[in-house]
Amino acid sequence: MNWFMREIVDPGKLRLFCFFVAFILAFLFIRISVRMIRAQVTWWPGNITPGGTHLHHVVFGLVFMCLGGIGGLAVTDSGSLTAAVLAAVFGVGTALVLDEFALVLHLEDVYWAEDGRVSVDAVFVAAALCGLGLLGVSPFEIGDTFTRDGGTLTHPEVALIIGTNVLFAALSLAKGKIWTGLLGIYLTPLALIGAIRLARPSSPWARWRYQHKPHKLARAQWRERRIREPVERFKRALQDFLAGRPSP
Predict the structure, then answer these.
(1) Domain assignments of the chain as residue spans, ordered by start
(2) DSSP string, 6-66
(3) For the segment 98-147, what is each residue's pLDDT rounded down to a tens digit?
(4) Contact at 8 Å (CB) between 8 and 21?
């Protein structure tokens, strides 16, 4: 309890903590639910189809997000029980929406298709960014953590550091390194590594810069086969374990 008060409540992270816990639990619950429905377990409630219309859980997610988001904006005391509950409601809604992110992206039901894996990726990214926030890693608080001559950095210095960090993260994303780019917004060394390393061969950067540099394109393709593909196989296995294997 002392740790919780010291690390979560006192720094003002109660709402983020409640959001994170509710987000994880809601994602696990909805994935268990849809896998039960997919397996046609008789004792588990099936899809909700009022009037023959299948209501996807993204609909309920949007409702929860509106309730939690609008209600949270109306609460002035960020450390109150009401604020914590509304943050949890928002976390539940976010999990339900991101779990069907692929449906929203493709505007068709690809939940159990190969394209549906992007939903799990979206959930993983959101959970990672939220976890970093709980650990106190934030690019917008850099002025409070970095000092120069015993004092805090000036606003232009902070803006320069954050702007450089965002530039590195954008370069990483352009090179096809989604995880490196997104997490690099919070972790500058990671963004720098992604910005200076070779791009993935199918990335926009490779199409712009490597078409007339066959040696770089060949190196990028070699790295993709030797390094990226094993990592991708592990990620897919983890996705299948947590969220279910897509249909053939």
Answers:
(1) 1-136
(2) IIIITTT-HHHHHHHHHHHHHHHHHHHHHHHHHTT-TTS-----GGG----HHHHHHHHHH
(3) 999 999 999 998 999 989 999 999 999 999 889 888 887 766 555 455 55
(4) no
